Amino acid sequence: MPQSREATFMKLRLAGRLAGTMLLATATAALTAAPVGASPEQASTPEQSSAVDQQDRPGTLLEAMQRDLGLTLAQSRQRLQRETIAERVQRTVRGSLGTAYGGSYYDSAAGELVVGVTDRAKLDEARSSGAKARLVEHSSAELDGIADRLGGLLPEAPPSVTGYYVDPADNSVVLTADRGGAGAAEDFLRSSGVGETAVRVETERSPRLYNDIVGGNPYYVNDGARCSVGFAVQGGFVSAGHCAREGDGTSSPRGTVAGSSFPENDYSYVASAERGRPAVNDYGGDTVPVAGSTEAPVGSSVCRSGSTTGWHCGTIVSKNQAVRYDQGTVHGLTRTDVCAEPGDSGGAFVSGDQAQGMTSGGWGNCTDGGTTFFQPVNEALGEYGVRLLTE
């Protein structure tokens, strides 16, 4: 971004006093693009089973998992294999349980998917799918409904309230507030009349937008603003919505922003004639393949690519997160404990070889750690009717 726009973004704060969650608008292209004029590669059928084999090399996902999650090489391989199984089990059990589904998460210590079930009679059905089942009070649909109602009231919340998310491990909705703001958040919750028994208040550092403009594998917007490519899709790529407005032009790769949604959502689609690759930059001299976009459960490992800080890994903490940025509230984000810094916006989040989403914002840094939110990629693919390029 030019100095004028950079200054504007660096001043952006979450509603009220939220100076901590950043939109990563300067990030490097997380994919490598070929020269202008080439057509996108045709995608083949996704193959999850090849993920671990293809990533068994230095400088890639396995190395980052060892560094950031404290795992050995063997443990990293095993975790990826188990998480792939958990993704499939989650998809199956969610459909079979129907209204009795109470959410699910990956237990990294046990190496298995834990599924909440509201109907005792269906516990064995959940176990037969390969999951660990537990009886819970609230269904996933009920918690999502409470979260949606909180979202509708968020504009009336005190500035200390920073957002909310659904926590499947606790079978609750979490209302987040900045440090020192718990009392005001609890007062707001009581006055809201929204499922107090299913909602708890947590405090954390205030979020801000990640938007510092620095170099590395960039794509540039009209005025020089730089962001990271998220994923190559048929006819272009997807990235973060806060990076550019519809109609803006981009360069390196050259294209036009055909659609952009921010706030409320944080995704964009850039139409480009340049050749796309089903891969993500691992900042170790290689790329990580993209084989599909199966949604990983809470508790799964996830890695992020961005130009400021490169390749970092962590864990999916929760989903359906709302974050109050100064420009408005973004709903439906996924919360992670992966670090990020200004300049990482729009970059790719992957779990194994499965695309998960594009970096939105967060708080903290890659020295002390922090929280980063991403926009789920499948929502963007559906909105723009584009197909993810896969190996």
TrEMBL record:
The keyword Disulfide bond applies. SUPFAM superfamilies: Alpha-lytic protease prodomain, Trypsin-like serine proteases. Its EC number is 3.4.21.-. Gene3D superfamilies: 3.30.300.50, Trypsin-like serine proteases. Residues 1-38 form the signal peptide. The keyword S-adenosyl-L-methionine does not apply. This is Streptogrisin C. GO terms for cellular component: extracellular region. The lineage of its organism: Bacteria, Bacillati, Actinomycetota, Actinomycetes, Actinopolysporales. The active site is at residues 242, 266, 345.
